[in-house]
């Protein structure tokens, strides 16, 4: 018999399984005053199989966060393997595509080092990773053009190889481009995550059948919250990504890089693993994994579907991600069956991702300036406050850009909204708590 698990129970499991402090929350889903959500900590179970072996071997040579290295490796492996292996959920076929979005502070996050460390093994494995590795997402049409179907056998612009691994070190720019009027980027990204044919109705030549695209994004938490305030999260573009918070793991004044023999040995293993994975087709759960999924994990990762907090909106696809990652672990082991161990490793990683979303999206509540605005808006109730009145809370000493960021962070939380009232001239805009 399955048991119902609410969002608060998920947070308790995050604490137990990822060894992080209890995320104290009241029934409204807000952190208890004085006890903000802590940074997530990784359960060692996530470092499973060959990907985990690569991370552990590389760790002494880099300041990158091991979790960042792991998810970068998983995304790159899923892309280079191709669309052969898949896991089916109901009548929906899920390719083994992982889209990690690495959240890290400027300078200390070491986001780029994490992806670079993973990619060195991919490049040295001799599996064609360099041929599918690109950057520069600018438009939906641009993505289609890179892997579009050839118009004829003589069309040198098209390709039958639909694999692509896109690394975006400035993902905030991608978010800005997707927001532009008339942009198809968000729509095309949603289609690509599903593995559906990419096409633009206004351009018959722009069509890419059976795409297999992985995306690795890098962004700071502050940039993400700012861009998110300007975007439509409900459209689902960003809950296709797997949020992963990263920090510098250690200080290495002169990092030496991976030892050549270790790199050669593990790259050779990766070559063989990818070659074997390409022979796998549909991946299913073995008996033990079915029991684990049915009695525990399914309820855990679908419990927040009906919740309405910022972090739950960002983790709507936790359940399919758990199965995709578990299936990728199985494929890299050359197996068409997901075991309970694969599922446990995957579940631990998804819990870390949920904890990352909680940490990043709740962090806006920690700024004392934001707390001050929140208190004032709560007291103002339905009447709300104008921008000028909010500025007066700080004796008008807060710069315009800073005030823009504070107000954007508030509205991004979903707990506060803007109300526009016509005045005959310039409309009046007031901020108030969401009713």
Topology at a glance:
Elements lengths: L6 H12 L30 H10 L7 H16 L4 E4 L2 E4 L4 E4 L7 H14 L4 H4 E2 L5 H7 L16 E6 L2 H9 L5 H10 L3 E3 L2 E6 L3 E8 L1 H9 L12 E4 L14 H18 L4 E4 L1 H16 L7 H4 L4 H15 L4 E2 L1 H23 L5 H13 L4 E2 H6 L7 H13 L3 E6 L6 E6 L2
Parallel strand pairs: 1-10, 3-8, 3-9, 4-5, 5-8, 10-11
Antiparallel strand pairs: 1-2, 6-7, 12-14, 13-14
Entry keywords:
435 residues, alpha/beta, Rossmann fold, Arc Repressor Mutant, subunit A, 2 domains, 5-stranded parallel β-sheet, 4-stranded mixed β-sheet, 14 strands, 14% strand, globular, disordered N terminus
Structure explained in plain terms:
It is a single chain. The protein is α/β, with parallel strands linked by helices and 435 residues long. It folds into 2 domains: 7-364, 3-Layer(aba) Sandwich (Rossmann fold); 367-433, Arc Repressor Mutant, subunit A (Orthogonal Bundle). Helices cover 46% and strands 14% of the residues. It has 17 helices and 14 strands. It has helices spanning 7-18, 49-58, 66-81, 111-124, 129-132, 140-146, 171-179, 185-194, 221-229, 260-277, 287-302, 310-313, 318-332, 340-362, 368-380, 387-392, 400-412; strands at 86-89, 92-95, 100-103, 133-134, 163-168, 198-200, 203-208, 212-219, 242-245, 282-285, 337-338, 385-386, 416-421, 428-433. The chain has a 5-stranded parallel sheet. Strands 2-1-10-11 form a 4-stranded mixed sheet. A 3-stranded antiparallel sheet has the order 12-14-13. Helix 2 packs across helix 3, helix 2 packs antiparallel against helix 10 (260-277) and helix 11 packs parallel to helix 14 (340-362). The longest helix has 23 residues, at 340-362. The two termini are 38 Å apart.
